[in-house]
Amino acid sequence: MTLDNILEEIKKAETIVILTHETPDGDAIGSSLAMKIALKQLGKNADIIIPRYSRTFGFLPDAKEIKSESKNARYDLAISVDCADLKRLAGAEYFESAKIKIQIDHHSINTMFGDYNFVNPVAPACCEILLGMFEYFGIEITLELGTCIITGIITDTGGFQYAGVTADTFEFAAELLQKGVNISNVYQKVLTTRTKANFELSRIVSNRMEFFEDGKVTFTYMNLEDEKSVGAEEGDHEGLVNIGRDIEGVEVSIFIREKEGTNGYKVSLRSKEYANVADVALMLGGGGHVKAAGCFVQGTVEEVKEKVLSEIKKVLK
Ligand code: 5GP
Ligand code: MN
C-alpha cells in the first residue's frame, strides 16, 4: 500500500525536502509545516523550501525554519504537499532532482507526478489527508502539529463552510480541540483578521466590481500599481475574490490581478452552488477545484475579461 511505501521511503532517506505550490495558502503552508514536525518525530530533519509566503502564517510553529532556497542540489527524498501539478510547484527543481519523489494532495485533477502519489480528491484539505496519514504512521498529534493541521482545514474549507466538509472534518477538528489546539485563535488569525493593505485593496476592487449575466457573474481586477499604492505584500490579495461571490444572486466571481514580469493576469475563480469553475480554468490552461480554480491569461484587463467571461457563460445554467 502506498502509505507503507511512503513511510519506508521516509525512513530510508537521509536528506528530505518539503515543497508546495506557488502563492501558498493556509493549506499549503499548514501541510508543509505539519509534515516537517511529523518527520521530526520520525527522527528526520527536513528542509522546507517556500520562496515567498504571506506573513499571516508567520505565527505557525516552525515557520521561522522555512527556507527560500537550498544549497543541497540533490535530496534523497522530495515530498510535495497540496500541489496538483509540477508546473505549479514552487522549487520544482528540488523535486525533479530528488532520488525519490512523493506527493500528497487533494486536487481531483492531480497529474500524479511523483513516484508515489497519495491523492484523495474527496478530502476538503490536504491537511486532513495528512492527519489520517500521521495517525496511521503512529505519530503523536502534538499541539504544534495540530495547530498546523487545523490551519489548512480552516482555510481550505472557508471556516467549515464549503460543501466538501464532512462529518470526518468535524471529528478531526473535535479531536484537535481535545488536544488543546486553539481553533478559535487560529480561525481569527488566518481567516477573520485582515491586513490594512488587504482592506485598502478590497475598497479598490469593490469600486471596480462589474456585474454580468443578470447579476450571476461579477468581475473585478487589481494592477501592480494598486498593490504599490497600498504597500501590499505577499498574500495581501487573499480573499478578495470572495467579495463578489458572497453577493446575493452571484454564482461566479472573477478576480484578476496583474502578474509581475508578464503581459497578463492571474485569474481567480469562485462559484457558489452549481457552476464548475475548474472546467473553466482547465479550458484556459489552469486548474483547481470545482468551486475554486485559477489560471493565467495573457492580455489587457479587457481582453482577459472577455476571454474568461465567454468560458464562464458555458458553465452557467
Ligand atoms: P486562487 O484563486 O486562490 O489562486 O486558486 C484557487 C485554486 O485554483 C488553487 O487552490 C489551485 O488549486 C487552483 N489554481 C489557481 N491557479 C492555478 C493555475 O495557474 N494552474 C492550476 N493548475 N491551478 C491553479
Ligand atoms: Mn489545499
Task: Give a nutshell description of this structure.
The protein has helices spanning 2-12, 26-41, 92-97, 126-137, 143-156, 167-178, 183-192, 196-207, 224-229, 240-245, 277-283, 301-313; strands at residues 16-20, 47-49, 66-67, 77-81, 100-105, 116-119, 210-212, 217-222, 252-258, 264-271, 287-289, 292-298.
How would you characterize this protein structure?
There is one protein chain. This protein is of the alpha/beta class and 317 residues long. Helix content is 39%, strand content 19%. The protein has helices spanning 2-12, 26-41, 92-97, 126-137, 143-156, 167-178, 183-192, 196-207, 224-229, 240-245, 277-283, 301-313, and strands at residues 16-20, 47-49, 66-67, 77-81, 100-105, 116-119, 210-212, 217-222, 252-258, 264-271, 287-289, 292-298. The strands form two sheets. It has a six-stranded parallel β-sheet. Strand 1 (16-20), helix 2 (26-41) and strand 2 (47-49) form a beta-alpha-beta unit. Helix 2 packs antiparallel against helix 5 (143-156). The N and C termini lie far apart (42 Å). The structure holds guanosine-5'-monophosphate and manganese (II) ion.
Strand content: 15-25%
Number of helices: 12
- Ligand list: guanosine-5'-monophosphate, manganese (II) ion
Using only CA atoms, what is the Rg? Answer: 19 Å
**Broad structural category:** alpha/beta
Total strand count, please?
Answer: 12
What is the subunit organization of this protein?
single chain
Share of helix, binned: 25-40%
Order of strands, widest sheet: 3-2-1-4-5-6
Overall shape: it is: globular
Low-confidence stretches: none
| SSE arrangement, N to C | HEHEEEHEEHHHHHEEHHEEHEEH
Residue-averaged pLDDT: 97
* Largest pleated sheet: 6 strands, parallel
* First-to-last CA distance: 42 Å
